[in-house]
## 1
Amino acid sequence: MRAPFQESVTAGAGLPVSALSGAVGSGPLIACASIGMGVALCCASAGSPGLRVFGGVLGGALALVLVVFNGTAPL
């Protein structure tokens, strides 16, 4: 049986380095990531439980997308 992280390493090796920055540009990527993280932080600190969960999920998804699709170090 293979280790669970082998599939993710294999999938990550197929992506070019900084694929997201290359596709949309660094400036727009930074702006979108900053706005997304600001929205996530505002929602996560809201009083409504639904908004707090949404903020946490949005922040986690944003971090995951940036790490997977915009890693600057080759695997």
Note: The two ends are 22 Å apart (CA to CA).
## 2
Amino acid sequence: MYDQPRANPARPAITFEQMLERVRYEGAHPTRERAEEAVRTVLAALGRQLVGDERVDLAQALPVEAALALTAQIPDTEQLTGWGFIKDMAARAGTTPAVARWDTGAVLTVVARLAGPDLLARILRQLPGGYALLFGQAELRQPQPAA
């Protein structure tokens, strides 16, 4: 079965260079290269967690270079919690969880703005708990039914 053709999406609101400058500012990274490393590492990790329309729509909202970092990854069969995401990213990048968390916050805060509130809400519904804070959002828990 073939996917239905989608309308040509609008171009992302910012260029990759502008995205890097925003991440550099948010993360207080000393160089553009360090910001680019953070963007590529975080988006690769996110690409292993997202599937379906949310993955496609987020890629369309990002500059091409960022979208390629996201979509070059094959989604993992097991989704990680927010903390698991940080630990996995730190292990793959050879850094500490504190650095991984800092980079994640800087990158995903910018990604959240590019995605917009509707797409971000869909992404957060798809992911396990703990991701809202990584995107700079409040983590609202649903009340659990009494047993």
Note: Residues 1-5 have pLDDT under 50 and may be disordered.
